[in-house]
Amino acid sequence: MLKEALEKIEALAKSELSQCADEKTLEDLRVKFLGKKGELTAILKQMGSLSAEERPVIGQLANKVREDIESAITMRRQSLKEELTALRLKAEAIDVTLPGKKREVGKLHPLTQVLNELKDIFLGMGFDIVEGPEIETDHYCFEALNMPKTHPARDTQDTFYINENVVLRTQTSSVQIRTMEKTKPPIRIISPGRVYRSDAVDATHSPLFHQIEGLVVDKGITMGDLKGTLETIMKRLYGEDAKIRLRPHHFPYTEPSAEIDVMCFKCQGKGCPLCKGEGYIELLGAGMVHPKVLEGCGIDPEVYSGFAFGLGLERIVMRRYGISDMRLLYENDLRFLEQF
Ligand code: DAH
To answer: Which of 91, 123, 152 lies at the terminal end of a domain, its last residue?
Structure first.
């Protein structure tokens, strides 16, 4: 009776072990057959009822069954481990014959590229680079630049209002005031940054664009310094043949004021579609800092003079690369951006 039961247990254990597919089931089977409350133990407990002749025979058989099951478990554990390793190796296999993945290298936006170039040129000429806030008070954006609330020049620079006295700056000229209030001459700075105007979007307008402001204040600064500085910049930017011209203009914060044009590099001044027949292309506004503006910042206009200029970064980038629509600069279309 017990003999048959033992043989049955062994057969059952072996058949269940052969179907076991993971470590957890394997452990459960070990407990089920060999554990303290396991099937083999249950049978051994009945040994007491056997005769003296039967006991050693069944005892021996029970030991053999235990050893057989133990070794079957060990073998199964080993083969499970091997199967798992084989599966992992297969899943993680690297096919060294496949072509490599090309790493995409990004690059700087054309606006940033040209800005960096301009920064280098100015740094080389002894300018410092300063930053100013994009959210600006009416005072720094207009008032202190000699543009009181009723000034008609404000009409061309409608902006976005946070409240009546706080706006998104329409021009980096605000940084002129902030700089002159904080630092005493000699001052030689540029200040690049974003500016805002509530203009409708078209090929040459955007509610957000970039300017670079320049300011030089010292004893004996003249219009000649302004012209010389800007001519040098334009030659660096557009080549040694670049020529500039100054046209009289009006800005409330400079006196005299000028608009500065660069000779059209496509037609060399003859007139062509790019320069609309003018021979020159308008690039920036500039002038000698108005005495009232200096005074307002606590700088004595009898002792010091200065020049200032403001140029549009987009315009320079568009001229440089022959881009006809400003919107292309903001669309982040890689087909466009990859060309620079
Ligand atoms: N702020 C002017 C604009 O946004 C540009 C400008 C003109 C800046 C004359 C200057 C300047 O510093 O002197 O159109």
So the answer is: 91
